[in-house]
Design brief:
CATH architecture: 3-Layer(aba) Sandwich
CATH topology: Rossmann fold
CATH superfamily: NAD(P)-binding Rossmann-like Domain
CATH class: Alpha Beta
Order of helices and strands: EHEEHEHEHHEEEEHE
Shape: globular
Largest sheet: 8 strands, mixed
Number of domains: 1
Structural class: alpha/beta
Amino acid sequence: MRITVFGATGGVGREIVRQGLAAGHEVTAVVRDPARLTVTAAPGDPGTLEVLGTDLTAPEQVRAAVAGRDAVLSALGPRDRKDPGVTARLTRAVLAAMAAEDVRRLLVVSASPLAPTPPGEPLVDRLMEAVVNVVFRAAYADMRAMEAALAGSGTDWTAVRPPRLLDGPGTGRYRKVIGGRPKSGRTLNRADVAHAMLAMIEDRGTVRQAVGVAD
């Protein structure tokens, strides 16, 4: 399968690239600075890697990055809190390019707090969520705007909503809730977020859905 990965130098993006190569995909990694991408194909990996230095504000470059792909996976997000709205803005650029090139499948990283509180969620988890929503309110507003852009597009999108991300190894063991989020789902390794996104590419039950994932 031919896949394009946006945000390929971030924690989740690097894992998508690495696991995509191991799974035999033709991976195009889209980065601002190719020198920052530290992932390469491991010996024996059946996949292939193309690295594109792309200006996401240049529509023709973004179109070239998605043209002819079977799926686009996005781990785009802010590097810090000084650029509000960047996730939604960059995602709109990707959506416009996909529409122009007639590429339909898109999976993006969103966030667990955008999902409704699960029934029976323990008090400690609800209190933690309230604090997190205050601290990261600007980031979550950005992701809500991104998800609204997805819903208004013609793509076959999936918004993957993990909780707090960790850097541990992938386990392949995580809970998944379509349209909601796992109860008391507090953390998930970035490697497992990447695993979930790659596994959902051909899962039609996740199309035009937000999917909560957690350990």
